[in-house]
Amino acid sequence: MIIPLLKGLGLTLSRFFSKPITVQYPEEKVPPAKRWRGIQYFEKDERGKTKCVACGLCMIVCPSQCIYIETAEDEEGKRYPLTYELDASRCIFCGFCEEACPVKAIFMGKGYEWVEGSRKPFLMTTEKLLEEKANNP
Amino acid sequence: MQLLYLLIEMVIKCVVVFAGLMLAVAYLTWLERKVLGHIQIRFGPNRCGPFGLLQPFADGIKAFFKEDLIPGRADKAVFVLSPMICIIAAISIFAVIPFGNQFTIPGTNWVVKLRLADIDVGLLYIFGVASLGEYGIVLGGWSSGNKYGLAGSLRAAAQMISYEVALGLSIVGVIILSQSLRLTEIVNHQAGGFWNWNVWYQPVAFVLYIICGLAEINRTPFDMPESESELACGFNIEYSSMKFAIFFLAEYAHMITMGALAVTLFWGGWQPLLPQLDFIPGIVWFCAKLFVFLFFFIWQRGTFPRLRYDQIMKFGWKILLPLTLINLLITALIVLLKG
To answer: For B156-195, how does the pLDDT look when each residue is reduced to its tens digit (9 = 90+)?
Structure first.
């Protein structure tokens, strides 16, 4: 009856002297999983602009309807998004936009830390999505 | 003049002991969280100051500024009174604990004894006051007007009755050996190296004392009155803000006094480990030994699960009580035969 109690005490004592496995979050971070779906970003083409051709497939497939696109054509007759708005506060990070994109313009990134005081800054435009590329090498 | 000096000495000693005890209680909560954390392979509090050392003060400030609720169905007077009973009982036990020998103030012939009161029925006083503390818990749970609180306080009452008997009987052996209820005499009886400590003459009583002491301070294997998982905190369920903090302080102060009493009765109080080591002040020895006990109290909390209620009662009455009685009989017999 006594031996198991002592064994238990021994186990906890050995745990007491072992190194904690805690990851101290703001200083240390666990890298996200390989297939992690985080904040979206836009892939750039050779001119440094978005690859998006504003086909609107992502807008149609988006289950939470958080993408809004206005299409325009440039002087070469190439379509591009005049406005591309992705409301990240409504996005459910399902990754359907990435799957639907025919030109591989939008991708799900690795970022998961994004805190704001209001809803407004969560509205991602083309510029913001292009900037987000820098966080996803 | 003599009387005035005595008064000044008493006031200074009271203030120092009270402040020291409160500081020890504050850092005991820190130590508990830290040790439990490391046992569970995590860090424990480490954000507030270096190693989380300011955490107790942050907790205190938080408790102070929280809303103080008194439930509508509570018996208001008793509800307010019970944390006070708890803390007063827990602190006033420390008045008779001798935490060091005496020293002479340099340049004078004034002898300062390192204890607040050296009464000749010290042990009786301790057990009287310690069981008074249980009233705080019983009344607190009962006056809350809450069924969980009531269940907790009923358990506290039952546990108090069944374990107080064994606790009291377990130390009678020590009293027989040292022939005194005065704590300083019990400590002096154990002078001259660790082989003279009572723990070697009363090993069974020592183990029983630790077990019953844990039950007496409602600590984890026996924390029936406030078993979180079944009674949702038990007797202190309706308490908030500073009243809860006072219950908390009382619990930890009681833990320190239980440890200090174990040191005094079984581990030779302020006496050094070896007679050659007596250049280290007695108070350091006392604190070091006390720390061992406090660490053990926390360590076993991180190890053992809570006993079932009926098992606790069975253990108390059918195992601990007969064991203490047998131990007492054997001790008395040996002392009688040795003359």
So the answer is: 888 888 888 888 888 888 888 888 888 888 888 887 777 7
Q: Is there a contact between B299 and A12 if contact means CB atoms under 8 Å apart?
A: yes
CB contact under 8 A, A21 and B40: no
**Residues B79, B143 contacting (CB under 8 angstroms):** yes
A21:B37 CB<8 A = no
Tell me whether strands A67-73 and B102-104 are parallel, antiparallel or unpaired: unpaired
Task: Pick one of 3.30.70.3270, 3.40.50.1010, 3.30.70.60, 3.40.50.300 as the CATH number of A22-135.
Answer: 3.30.70.3270
Contacts of A8 in chain B (CB under 8 A): 303-304
Measured CA distances, B40 to A13, A26, B34 (Å) = 10, 21, 10
Let me know: does B59 contact B45? Beta carbons within 8 Å: no
Task: For residue range B241-251, list pLDDT tens digits in order.
Answer: 888 888 888 88
Instruction: Give B210 to chain A, closest Cα distance, Å.
Output: 14
How many C-beta neighbours within 10 Å does residue B227 have?
A: 21
Those residues with Cβ within 8 angstroms of residue B310's Cβ, 6 or more apart along the chain or in another chain:
none
Phi then psi dihedrals of residue B233, to 5 deg: 90, -5
Q: Where are the domains of chain B?
A: 2-338
How long, in residues, is chain A? Answer: 137
- Cross-strand partners of B41: none
Choose among B39, B43, B300: nearest Cβ to A15. Answer: B39
Nearby residues of B318 by Cβ (< 8 Å), 6 or more positions away = none
> CA torsion sign, B268 to B271 to B276 to B277?
positive
Task: Give the three-state DSSP class for A54.
Answer: coil
What is d(CA A131, CA A121) in angstroms, rounded to the nearest whole number? 14
The ipTM (two decimal places) reads 0.71
Whether the Cβ atoms of residue B101 and residue B185 lie closer than 8 Å to each other: no
Nearest to A5 by CA among B221, B239, B339: B221
Mean pLDDT (chain A, rounded): 86
Domains of chain A by residue range: 22-135
Helical spans, DSSP H, in chain A: 2-17, 57-61, 96-100, 126-131
Q: In the structure, how many helices (H) and strands (E) does chain B have?
A: 14, 2
String of b and e for B190-214 (b: at least 16 CB within 10 Å)? bbeeeeebbbebbebbbbbbbbbbb
Q: Is B41 on the interface with A (CB under 8 A)?
A: yes
Residue A72 has phi, psi (to 5 degrees) of -145, 165
Facing B43 at nearest CB: one of A9, A13, A22 = A22
pLDDT digit string, tens, across residues B14-60: 888 889 888 999 899 999 999 998 998 888 888 888 888 888 888 88
